[in-house]
Amino acid sequence: MALSLSNSALSGLPAGVDGPGYDRAALTPGIVHVGVGNFHRAHMAVYLDRLFARGRDHDWAIRGAGVRPGDARMREALERQDFLTTVVELDPAGLSARVTGAMTDFVEVDPEAIIAAMADPAIRIVSLTVTEGGWFVDAKTDGFDADHPDIRHDAATPDAPKTAFGMILAALKRRRAAGHAPFTVLSCDNLPENGHVAKRTVTGLARLSDTGFADWVADNVAFPNSMVDCITPATSDRERAMVRDRFGIEDPAPVVCEPFRQWVLEDDFPQGRPRLEDVGAEFVADVAPYELMKLRILNGGHAAIAYASALLGHHFVHDAVADPRISNWLAALEQREIIPTLAPIPGVDFEAYRLKVAERFANPEIGDTIPRICFDGANRQPKFILPVIRDALAAGRPVEGLALEVALWARYCAGTDEAGATLAPNDDRHDELKRLALAAKDDPAAFLSNGAVFGDLDRQPGFVDAFARQLGAVWRDGVAATLEDYARG
């Protein structure tokens, strides 16, 4: 019979399952983390769990928080098991499971409760994993989206905010009034210069209602950049059954992830930080080159294979990259057009990193799906592909393969795969994207006219012409033939 998690059950974990090697009752919180999804529990929470197991920094435990309806369900699930999480590492050489205990509480999903938790002077870091689309970035300008309805609400009623950023500002005001130092705001999302994005969002919101306070935030609150990496599939009944049947644990919200992790952080934490370098994190003066490498080779690689694989009928990522049409296309695109846009990093071999990424994609234990990496293209393309196109154009480099990636996305948005099967809607802007994608079959410029996604790229002849050629080839010759043609060079 599977074991239900709780503090009292930790002394009797099934054979082969590791548990917290420390007294959880001795932990005290130093971090409030907003967005307690799978990635956070596979990444930050694992680093801290390992650190605590070394007997270090027990005053840096996590208090979870969330502002979405789904966060309440997560809170209920975790509260029932004393905020413990089963983390399974999907190593092809052999799966392993560990019960982690770095999170000791999850604040009620209520603005006042979250503000009060952040205002506690014991909290020295407020970190966030709110997805790429959760930072209120205006795709047209790549700046702060001050017109979003939730932002307008928080600007009009700063004492009753809806967003995590409004709650951060309310908590900072309370701390300032009480004479407490401000916490550090740490983004853990896959965004270029995510610390700068965080600062822009928080100060941009503050400036809409109190310019003086916005200036104080800009001058006194640290927003370090960080680069995070660990492939973490969604949890389904498949993963829950595996945790129960293979490891003997009943956990309604387990996490499965690859064994690879990377965390590179700018060392800017005025109120202190846990010694995460003791468990593998890297602290550097400038995170930007590392995050750009990851965003372009890994996240850009995901984008490159996503739509081609969906159109060719693949469901799992590892099956897709076992298809030479996909793997050869990915290698050619990254070597010819993506890696050349990266500035050298001392001690880093981009080709070795690319090969490691390909190895990670090929891991059959992850069970990562093509629909997952196809999701939310309207937000992901401007983060992972379009900046590469802009840099390549500025340097006079070729963009045929990058244009082909965008053409494959357009073909996917048309709503059917190569066999004529319907592709399920996978984007909040599905209807508009489908309309433009179908129009682009005859007029490629129609798809690029979506300014919210493409900005001014529809006025860049080098890209517009390449996109028209590649989209025409995809519709005329088919996905497979077009991929093979590009890979051959």
TrEMBL record:
GO MF entries: oxidoreductase activity, acting on the CH-OH group of donors, NAD or NADP as acceptor
Domain Mannitol dehydrogenase N-terminal: 30-277
Boundaries of every Mannitol dehydrogenase C-terminal domain copy: 286-475
Superkingdom to which the source organism belongs: Bacteria
InterPro entries: 6-PGluconate_DH-like_C_sf, 6PGD_dom2, Mannitol_DH, Mannitol_DH/Oxidoreductase, Mannitol_DH_C, Mannitol_DH_N, NAD(P)-bd_dom_sf
Key words, A-Z: Oxidoreductase
Alphabetized PANTHER family for the sequence: MANNITOL DEHYDROGENASE 2-RELATED (PTHR43362:SF1), MANNITOL DEHYDROGENASE DSF1-RELATED (PTHR43362)
Name of the protein in question: Mannitol 2-dehydrogenase
